[in-house]
């Protein structure tokens, strides 16, 4: 008698009203084990590899399908992830462009000739190197960009010819599954990309399996570094964690032009971004005025259901995140921080966009990633002090400076401990072809479409004795 038992499912809720909006099947270890074995065998037998032109055809068709369904994809992002619809539309555009960028980058995936006769030992030989796929990829993603992050982890693997297993965030699996299904519709054989929604134990067993050649992780540093320590010998990896992004305001900066940028960088997706504006350092005689202006601007932001066109700030991803943010801000208030706007829960799933002035240096909002709708403004006496305080945490990702002074701009670019320093722009700026990475506890290796494709390939050299 056949077993008709259905696999357990993971329910997905709208994070604003907590109503169920869909579900995906949970994958057992037995199934994952079969996926890994198939991926391993695909890679080991070179005749199985998909030719480059075929991979380009699949990705181009996938981008076209995504373009045709752009509004549907945006609504799905807003519904499951709580990102306001206007921002979800931007994410879809980026995701489509990212898929296209993969095909363009393939034309740059070339080797080079290696000179051999630089010494007598190498004379009489010619040599060249090429790049080939590294092997099976396992990717684990985050909730805050449920389509674009998946594209950044999956499309490069498909482009360079690596079989890939993708585990989405448990809160936002629908966009991931949709993208995988689009790849199938575009002609990618299913064995080359597998959607894996599973429990943590199964995920860890999958990640640490010896058949995995490359592990891509986007999420908390605590989890990422733990998983890296457990990888099988030979598994390469890339980790993207968070930070507490600093902004330095110089006395020459233009208040009018910087305000919209700081508001966008701090409250985009309710601050649930790994490079969201968090710590703003302003001159002592200017910090209070800046905080007041930020507070007044923040009060105009509309908080609500992300699927509503007028919403500026949607819900936090889970109610316990609202509670955590509330606890951190209450701690800051009790330790002397001045509240210029917000500072209160609006309900179980939303928190007021908040501006704090001079929280204590040891408060959680000053020392850890808030990952919520809050900006902290601190006063400083000298630019050297501001830079030292900006660099004082074990996290280092993106930073920014607002100034009209070229010397100040170059000093902060040189001395801020960051992988990217934005001049007269917020810390959350990104385009998908630029290097994107955390230093120290904020990550390992470099993201960005082209950089990920490079990491998912490896050099092979041929040396020919004439």
Layout: helices, strands, pairs:
Blueprint: E1 9-13, E2 20-25, H1 29-44, H2 52-68, H3 70-81, H4 85-106, E3 112-114, E4 125-133, E5 137-140, H5 148-160, E6 164-167, H6 173-185, E7 193-195, H7 200-207, E8 214-218, H8 221-229, E9 236-240, E10 245-249, H9 255-267, E11 277-283, H10 287-298, H11 319-334, E12 338-341, E13 354-357, H12 364-367, E14 374-380, H13 383-390, E15 395-396, E16 398-402, H14 406-415, E17 420-423, E18 439-440, E19 443-444, H15 449-455, E20 457-465
Parallel strand pairs: 5-6, 5-8, 6-7, 8-9, 10-11, 10-16, 11-14, 13-14, 16-17
Antiparallel strand pairs: 1-2, 3-4, 4-20, 9-19, 12-13, 15-18
Helix pairs in contact: 1-7, 2-4, 2-5, 2-6, 3-4, 3-6, 4-5, 5-15, 9-10
Structure, described:
The protein is an alpha/beta fold. It folds into two domains: 9-241 and 442-465, Aldehyde Dehydrogenase, Chain A, domain 1 (3-Layer(aba) Sandwich), CATH 3.40.605.10; 245-431, Aldehyde Dehydrogenase, Chain A, domain 2, CATH 3.40.309. The chain is built from 15 helices and 20 strands. It has helices at residues 29-44, 52-68, 70-81, 85-106, 148-160, 173-185, 200-207, 221-229, 255-267, 287-298, 319-334, 364-367, 383-390, 406-415, 449-455; strands at 9-13, 20-25, 112-114, 125-133, 137-140, 164-167, 193-195, 214-218, 236-240, 245-249, 277-283, 338-341, 354-357, 374-380, 395-396, 398-402, 420-423, 439-440, 443-444, 457-465. A seven-stranded mixed β-sheet has the order 12-13-14-11-10-16-17, with helices on both faces.
